Amino acid sequence: MNIPEPQSPLPGVSVSTDQGLLQWISSVDHKQIGIMYLLVAFFFFLVGGVLALLMRVQLAVPENHFLSPQAYNQIFTMHGTTMIFFVLMPSVLGFSVYLTPLMIGANEMAFPRLNAFGLWMTFFGGLLLYFSFVAGGAPNAGWFNYAPLNEKNFSGSSGIDYYALGLFLSGVGSVATAVNLIVTILYYRIKGMRIKRLSLFVWMVLVNSFLILAAIPPLNAALSMILLDRQLNAHFFTTGGSALLWQHLFWLFGHPEVYILILPSFGIYSEVFQVFSGKRIFGYGFVAASSVAIALLAFGVWMHHMFAVGSGLVVNGFFSASSMLIGIPTGVKIFNWLATMYGGTIRFTVSMMFAIAFLIEFTIGGLTGIAFSIVPIDWQLTDTYYVVAHLHYVLIGGSFFGILSGLFYWFPKMTGRMLNEKAGKWFFWLFVIGFNGTFFIQHILGILGMPRRVYTYPALPSYGLYNFISSVSAFIMGIAGLLLVIIVYHGMKYGKKAGNDPWNGFTLEWMAASPPALKNFDSLPVVNSRRPLWDLKHPENPDDE
Amino acid sequence: MRRFNITAETQRRRGIDKIFSASPRLCGKNYLDKSCILLQSMLHPSSDQAHSIYRLFNRFNIAAFSMLALVIVLTVYICIKYRVRKGEERTPAQFKGNNKVEALMIGVPALLLLYFFYHTIATMKAVEPNMRGNTQPDVIITGHQFWWEVYYPQTGVITANEVHLPVGKRLIMEMRSADVIHSWWMPELGNKMDLIPGRNNFLTLNINQPATYAGTCSEFCGAQHAWMRLYVVAEDSVTYTDWLAANAQPASKMAGDSLIAKGEQIFQTATCGECHRIQGTAAQGNEGPDLTHLFLRKRMLSGMLPLNEANLYKWINKPQAVKPGSYMPDFIFSKDTLDALVHYMAQLK
Question: Which residues on chain B are in Cβ contact (under 8 Å) with A359?
């Protein structure tokens, strides 16, 4: 079957075989843009990781003087902001724009130039944020930047102005990419690729793009308001306005945001579990529908970040119930993935190992999430190290493990070369051990009364020891991060040739060359089910839908 | 609200002590001494409110650990049983799904959540009872960057950072903020409450056991958020009343000591009184902590250092070196001036 192709040539510099820097920068090809998103994420991951290690050095022993309080507060703010907006966000968008056209049998995104626009807005947003360091001081009020601490009289440096501008820019880029993805998925599917036959990764991208469209505007509104407050003495969040207004706007964005970061990872796991178990997904409809449920509920739970602001029983009760409900579709997913593995032929590739580890790590993060929906427990544990542990279990153990799983899974497609599996397993174990060592013990620190965002702490019983264990483990993660840099570099230079379909995959991207040509596909078989490649490989037993 | 037999509770929790701390807590009158180790763990509930939350937390932990164990066991079992062995060639059966299994996956968690939702509401009602319009607070706490103002409206007593409260009485605490958002958190006494500018929040508290409790500001509030700690000294009603009466007096003045007189004069002329209050003198500022009975307190700088003359000297000499980012400016005082100031302040009891 022929693939629809744009009539006129794509805008931008004509692509030759010479993949020079200028060619990359001017590219509007979705594969190159996807890879550049991932490179941006990788760059900021290294920066954010160094910031994290600086924090762990400062906290390794009680009453440490390694960092001044002012430096520490800038570092923890930049760590959180970087990891959320410039590591996880570009990672999920990178996989989305790289894979979506390939998986639906299209040759390009619907709006190639808009795609490039989205990427560069994100990248320049990040640079603008980091420019604050040389412009007098980085933002220092935490990644959620509560009012009125974010006002000029409490935070005098221009850091928070750069925070507002940087996040605004990258937010505009994300909205553009979301529109692009929605249109691509709805209009550029190959014949036979009905909505009900989309791979689960594309399903998650679709749901996620709607989430981005609805979640970013409240953030951009709040960012504009704080800029007006700081630059023109408006009073949105000070006397005459309301400090709580910031929290409402921010978390109306912020809670959907954490689902934006994890839904594409859910999509990655769904592909990886199927391929490395040699089975089709268990309960396709339930996995897809549970994501829609999560996306809808995401907008009705934001006040569980604010249970201690003194709202009444009715308000807290409502948001408690809605937050608990999130646990049901999430649990459905976990058990459907387990059921997908059940009875399969499980191959322990690095990609699969991250997916399996995710099941347990994310269950821990999910259960501590339920703790925060139980209002009285939240009253004790909110804003403590228990939250720090919880959010890292969902963002690393949930979202970031998915990105790593996806990296090992699709790297052969992106570069034509394999990553070294043996070194990858070393990386896996170092990273998982370091991760659990760093964060599990922080649950206990929170229960023992250690608040988050403190540059130091008194030598209360166990505090010193537990923090020291956490810091040492963080350095194990740091070593793992270095190893990943080496593995990726080695893979690009010397990796084994991959071939088109190294994992015995099920979805259309494995029909393209590795790496795919500028035109992804010349022709594709007729799509009759959710796993077109399975049908080709098993004509005796094709999928029924 | 239910009363608790403290001895039995303490006995029962001894196991937890072993896991979470090396030494038991018990700080009586000599609180904040070196020998006395304060914990601030939610696993040592000492108020009705904290007990309610603690019981709910235990229930939650049982359910959560069971769920986690189930996922771990299933994952490990499936991984071992269905791993591909060397040379194995097998095409697994291709299930589509099973609605009965899905119903189970939805039904069981839904029932569990219903159970916890019921207990959430019940516990919230116990911890934050409807005050039926009775919002006459016993204590008003005002958060400042980076210290706690403590005001007792019935007696007019003002102090800072160390909150004396009576045991066995239902207290209403009002929470306010003078600048940014802070949060009151005494883990052994129950729930947090944010202190938000432009908003008055209320907290009810029934403390069970006389002791000193440690807590901290738990909403990030700026440079010295880490050293915005606080203490609650819970006392029987006689001790508490005595303490209130002593603190209601204006500042004591020892006559005849020329160094004290000199110190007081410096305090009044060197703009200290613009920010600090000493009851009974012209110093009536409210930007910094009240100093009327400073040396009745045990620690200084919101828990950062033990309160003694040496530390006070160090602090006034170079505040920004001791607690960088706090609002106390660096003055340039001579040694004589500092000696007189510290000497004067040391008799504020």
Answer: 71, 75
Q: Which residue has the tokens 């724009």?
A: A97
- Is residue B269 domain-resident? yes
Residues of chain B with Cβ-Cβ distance to A368 below 8 Å are 64
Range of the domain at B283: 258-346
Total domain count, chain B: 1
Identify which of A363, A367, A451 has the shortest CB distance to residue B216.
A451
pLDDT tens sequence across A360-410: 999 999 999 999 999 999 999 999 999 999 999 999 999 999 999 999 999
Contact A347, B84 (CB under 8 A): yes
Number of Cα atoms under 13 Å in the Cβ half of residue A296? 7
Residue B179 domain-assigned (yes or no): no
Mark yes or no for CB contact A380/B40 under 8 Å. Answer: no
**Would you say A161 and A259 are in contact if contact means Cβ atoms under 8 Å apart?**
no
How far is residue A491 CA from its own chain's centroid?
Answer: 23
CA A536/CA A506 separation, integer angstroms: 9
Q: Rg (Cα) of chain B, in Å, rounded?
A: 27
At CA A85, angle to CA A181 and CA B183, rounded to 5?
130
Residue A5 or A104, more confident: A104
Query: In the predicted model, what is the mean pLDDT of residues B109-127?
Result: 94
Q: Which two tokens stand for residue A208?
A: 């996620």
Structure tokens at A386: 């228990």
Contact flag B82-A346 (C-beta cutoff 8 Å): yes
Residue B324's domain is classified under what CATH number? Answer: 2.60.40.420
In A278-420, which ranges are continuous DSSP H helix?
284-297, 313-341, 350-373, 375-381, 385-394, 401-415
Contacts across the A-B interface (CB distance below 8 Å):
274
Kindly report the three-state secondary structure assignment for every residue of A366-388.
HHHHHHHHCHHHHHHHCCEHHHH
Minimum-distance CB partner of B124 among A243, A278, A376? A376
Model confidence pLDDT, tens digit, residues B260-274? 889 999 999 888 999
Per residue in B7-45, pLDDT (tens digit) is 444 444 444 344 333 333 445 444 444 445 567 889 889
Distance between CA atoms of residues A18 and A459, nearest Å: 60
Tell me the per-residue pLDDT of A177-187, one tens digit each, with 9 for 90 and over: 999 999 999 99
Residue B156: inside a domain, yes or no?
Answer: no
**Of B192, B215, B324, Cβ closest to residue A308:** B192
Residues in A closer than 8 angstroms to B40, CB to CB, are 448-449, 460
Q: Is residue B321 part of a domain?
A: yes
ipTM for this model: 0.92
